[in-house]
Design brief:
- The chain folds into two domains: 3-130 and 314-342, Alpha-Beta Complex (Quinone Oxidoreductase, Chain A, domain 1); 135-286, NAD(P)-binding Rossmann-like Domain (Rossmann fold), CATH 3.40.50.720.
- It is 24% helix and 24% strand.
- It has helices at 41-49, 125-128, 131-144, 159-168, 183-191, 200-204, 236-243, 294-308, 323-332; strands spanning 3-11, 14-21, 30-38, 79-86, 98-101, 108-111, 117-118, 151-155, 175-179, 195-197, 224-229, 244-252, 275-278, 316-319, 339-342.
- Strands 3, 4, 5, 6, 7, 14 and 15 form a seven-stranded mixed sheet that branches. Strands 10-9-8-11-12-13 form a six-stranded parallel sheet, sandwiched between helices.
- The protein is globular, with a radius of gyration of 21 Å.
- The relative contact order is 0.16.
Length: 344
């Protein structure tokens, strides 16, 4: 009997590759042979380390991720592969089609065709594994609503941070700055059009000169109109609050899992009239829902793949059998940018 292989998080700090019987598509389903899958460094580090609420739904908006974070579990949501078999009632034209799917790390899977995203001919398949990261970056920019002439600060230049910075660099902003402790990531951010700083303290020492047109005289000129917190580190949130100006927006795209974020809200925040916005890609901002759907947002993402060239962000490649090594490295080396699993 033929089999498939998948990554399983067996317990905190424990990952193994398990073997299952090969799934057979139902009459209206197709089976996909996975070629590549991308690891979400921030989220999957939390899952690996056991820093997620066990009874929280994994993602009710994704069919393949029903259930909670109780161990053992399969996780992941960025597979690219080729349709190799279809059910009796499915369209035979799917066979041989390259697709993206929100599926865990698994060598083969069955799915309803309407959950698959066909990839245009010529699409870089490795780069397409970063579709969820590009979608998240698009969602972050939509939620932040940058305006002409505004100043923006982005904390964190992981994959999502770098993609967000790249999108923001295309806006007519007055200033775009990032805060990132890892030198190689700062260099990537600068190549995308941002000023990069090692810490919030370094950022503060490079404040622009006072703007005589400011409507809030006591608001320091180094504070921004729009700030993003994308580090996944709760303690950075206070630095992000301190950098957000009067009436500004602070968009939190990080997921902290079970980690607590101690906030200092008795000083600058209290009189700032800033807005703190939670941004998560599984939904659309209610203000946009009259005109935007997830499908429309995904069409924007697919159009951006060629422009953003996300393949350039892939830092490490592992075979599926090396999954345990992959997650050990991810937990121990914060500089790991974007791992991808390569399937035989």
């Amino acid at each position: 009997m033929s089999t498939r292989r998948r990554v399983q998080f067996s317990a905190p700090g424990e990952v193994e590759v398990v073997t299952d019987p090969m799934p057979v598509p139902d009459t209206d389903e197709v089976r996909v042979r996975t070629q590549y899958s991308a690891v979400s460094p921030g989220t999957e580090r939390l899952v690996y380390q056991g820093d997620v609420p066990r009874h929280l739904e994994a993602d009710s908006s994704i069919e393949a991720l029903q259930g909670d974070f109780s161990y053992p579990l399969s996780y992941g949501y960025a597979c690219v592969g080729e349709v190799e078999r279809v059910g009796a009632d499915a369209d035979q034209a799917w066979i041989g089609t390259s697709v993206f799917a929100f599926q865990p790390h698994v060598s083969h899977f069955v799915a309803s065709p309407d959950t698959l995203i066909p990839l245009p001919e010529g699409t870089d398949l490795e780069g397409a594994t970063l579709i969820p990261s590009v979608e998240t970056a698009v969602n972050l920019v939509m939620d932040g609503r940058p305006m002409i002439g505004e100043s923006v600060v982005v904390f964190g230049q992981g994959v999502v941070g770098l993609l967000t910075t790249q999108l923001l660099a295309n806006h007519p902003l007055t200033r775009l700055k990032v805060v990132e402790p890892v030198l190689s990531r700062r260099e990537r951010a600068e190549s995308r059009g941002a000023q990069a700083f090692e810490s919030a303290q370094a950022l503060e020492t490079c404040a622009p000169s006072a703007d005589p047109g400011r409507t809030v005289p006591d608001d320091p000129p180094d504070r921004a109109d729009l700030v993003y917190e994308l580090t996944g580190r709760p303690h950075v949130l206070n630095d992000a609050v301190a950098q957000t100006g009067f009436g500004g927006r602070l968009v939190i795209g990080s997921w902290y899992g079970t980690k607590q974020a101690p906030l200092k809200l008795g000083g600058h925040f209290h009189r700032s009239r800033m807005r703190i916005i939670s941004s998560q890609v599984s939904t659309i901002d209610p203000d946009y829902r009259g005109r935007w759907t997830k499908g429309r947002r995904m069409s924007v993402v697919l159009d951006l793949l060629g422009t953003l060239s996300p393949r350039q962000l892939i830092s490490d490649r592992f075979r599926l059998e090396e999954a345990a090594t992959l997650y050990t490295q991810l937990a121990d080396d914060a500089s790991t940018l974007q791992p991808v699993i390569v399937y035989d």
